[in-house]
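Checklist before submission:
- one chain only
- standard amino acids only
- sequence pasted in full

Submission:
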Amino acid sequence: MRTLLSLASYLLVGYGVLCLLLYLLQRQLIYFPVPAAYPPDNPLLLQQGQHQVLVSQQPRSGPQALLYFGGNAEDVSVSLSEFSDAFPEHAIYLLHYRGYGGSEGRPSEQALVSDALALFDAVATQHSEIMVIGRSLGSGVAVQLAAQRPVQQLVLITPFDSLTKLAQQQFPVVPVRWLLKDRYESAHYASSIDTPTLLLVAEQDEIIGRARSEALYQAFATDIARLQLYPGGHNSYLPAQHIKNLL
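Returned file contents:
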């Protein structure tokens, strides 16, 4: 009996240590900052409090603009020329999250959404028709932006309905709802979006899974969103021109 109690004590302590480590290290598990392969030589600069946030850009005159929010380990600088070629009528703006590609500060849900709203407001002074594209983690940023600003078109690539639910799937024995700081509850915001929305979902998404993407799709109001499958996994390459052809 004493041996069983000792074993139970060790297991309980080990479980507590696991929960503590996940709580303390959670943002290191969500965000993977990367440097910019092509540091912008003429970036749009956003001064967000004490932090300067960089935006790779291809300025163009006219009403149309495109904002792009990348994945959790993505260097958006490599996509500037491709988006510029695929959307020649749009000015292009690619946000470098805090801690990524020369941007100052540390990433968090509150910081990324705040920066996205600031970027939209800056771009809206020159462009009246703004398309927003978000990939993976960036889909969570894009959804919250579209729920708060008059976005013309919303495109979500490998999106998810809730980071909380996604994390619970990956750590089923951990009380994720009590521990998670950044929740990205996209399904909650989707219901208030009236912007035409395209969800591009990988058929074999091994990280997010189709169920989480389809749950987000179901959260939109009727006739607002459409879902398009494409072959491959979560990190399968999806050319910008292919995205444009589906719009």
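Reviewer check: DSSP finds nine helices and eight strands in the chain.
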